[in-house]
Amino acid sequence: MTPLRAARITGASVIALTVLLAGIGSAGTPDGFDLGQTFVVALIPGIPVAFAAAVLVYRYFGAAGDGDLATRMVNASTSGLPASREEWGAAMRAELAFVDDPPSRWRFALGCVMTSLRISLTRESWLVVFAAGPLVAVLTLAASRISLAGGRAGILVATLYLPALVLFTTGLVTARIHRSFRSGLVAGALALVFSLIGMLAVAMIEGVHWQSVAGVFLMDGDAPQGGQLDRIQAALDPVSPFFVLIHLMVWVPSPVLGALVGGLDRRGDRIALTVSRQP
Questions:
Q1: 157 shares its domain with 114
Q2: pLDDT tens digit sequence for 72-124
Q3: DSSP assignment of 41-89, as one string?
Q4: Residue 38 sits in the same domain as residue 93
Q5: 74, 79, 198: which is closest to 129 by C-alpha?
Q6: What is the torsional sign of CA 196, 199, 205, 208?
Q7: Looking at the structure, do residues 178 and 156 belong to the same domain, yes or no?
Q8: Residues 184 and 225 in one domain
Q9: Whole-prediction pTM value?
């Protein structure tokens, strides 16, 4: 896949995603809703998401090469591995050529995908991954207490962008350690899961604290409509689909971009991509 085609995919993704977000934002809004303003606001998270998607398409769909689906799966799953695992990737690609039975090829390809994910990380990178969850939990707690002692505007901005920075750093550091975009991407994806758990766990507890102290919602600092805020409402507010979706949209591109920067011009990544494209 050429860079020009990847750029076209990015542009189309930005437009499609922004239109989708603008439509979601317009749902249920009162009269006088400014669609143009919502479109611009939706463009902010839309661009990083679309760019990250284009990076993944360019690297892994391009690395998949030609052949049947099993061949493409093996090629993509063995591209961008750490330098110490390159021989294993080359051996898997060569071994698939001797497997003729279609069900056996599928099982072999799926096994390569699962194994490639497991071997992308070492003990050092697992430490980086596991540190992300507690760090995000501490940042969420700190943001809650600082906001509660100040203007009580909520913690949404903090929980959107501080964890995103943590995830970017996780992808970057791990990619640097292993000299591999793949390792940074896998580590960042796992760190995202742990970070989401840590953030939501603390936010639910802090939501109840905000309810008892200020009587407002934790995430945006708004007061409930039509009555007092109860503990169940306060605890469930951070895990509402709306807030979870917003956090995922801002967080997901971060490890991808971090892995891209950390694995930039890395020898292991270039070799794996080159080998996977050979017939």
A1: no
A2: 888 888 877 777 778 888 898 888 888 888 888 889 989 988 888 888 777 77
A3: HHHHHHHHHHHHHHHHIIIIIHHH-SS-HHHHHHHHHTTT--GGGHHHH
A4: no
A5: 198
A6: negative
A7: yes
A8: yes
A9: 0.76
